[in-house]
């Protein structure tokens, strides 16, 4: 028995994966290049701009996943001592929280209109 996925769903899944990987790769490059620099605290805001741009192109799921993955990568590689998820700086925790809050909420705001129109609606007649 072979499972077949409709081409539209496969394309949406591929778009989500590409957008999430784009957010993750930008966050990882920022973390590796600007680790221990003076702009360390602004890295989540830069990542937020990337998440918003990716969400505007690829949709809500990509924006939400991209913001979560970006926050995890920045917390692990930039702000946590000895590569853990325990962030000691209150400023860094606040900026990561803004990345998560802004990334998730603004992904819904900047959703492409066609994604909202593709969803079936429940009609009660």
What does this structure look like?
The chain has a domain at 38-109. With 125 residues, it is mostly helical. The longest helix is centred in the first third of the chain and has 27 residues, at 7-33. It has helices at residues 7-33, 43-58, 60-79, 90-109, 113-118. Helix 1 packs antiparallel against helix 2 (43-58) and helix 3 packs antiparallel against helix 4. It starts with 6 loop residues before the first helix and ends in a 7-residue tail after the last helix. The chain contains five helices and no strands. Helices cover 71% and strands 0% of the residues. The protein is elongated and about 45 Å long.
Give a summary of the structure in a few sentences:
With 125 residues, this protein is mainly alpha-helical.
Give helix % range.
Answer: over 70%
Order of helices and strands: HHHHH
Low-confidence segments, given as residue ranges, are none
Helix- and strand-based class? mainly alpha
**Beta-strand level of the residues, as a percent range?**
under 5%
Mean pLDDT level:
86
Distance between termini? 38 Å
* C-alpha Rg (nearest Å): 17 Å
Number of strands: 0
Q: Helical region count? A: 5
The main β sheet shows up as: none
Overall spatial form: elongated
Provide tags for this entry.
single chain; mainly alpha; 125 residues
SSE order and pairing:
Layout: H1 7-33, H2 43-58, H3 60-79, H4 90-109, H5 113-118
Helix pairs in contact: 1-2, 1-3, 2-3, 2-4, 3-4
């Amino acid at each position: 028995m072979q499972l077949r996925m409709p081409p539209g769903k496969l394309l949406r899944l591929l778009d989500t994966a590409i957008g999430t990987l784009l957010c993750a790769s930008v966050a990882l490059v920022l973390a590796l290049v600007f680790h221990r620099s003076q702009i360390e605290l602004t890295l989540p805001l830069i990542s937020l701009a990337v998440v918003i741009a990716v969400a505007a192109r690829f949709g809500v799921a990509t924006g939400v996943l991209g913001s979560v993955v970006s926050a995890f990568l920045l917390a692990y590689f930039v702000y946590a001592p000895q590569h853990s998820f325990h962030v000691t700086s209150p400023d860094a925790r606040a900026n990561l929280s803004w990345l998560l809050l802004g990334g998730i909420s603004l992904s819904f705001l900047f959703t492409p209109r066609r994604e909202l129109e593709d969803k079936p609606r429940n009609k009660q007649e």
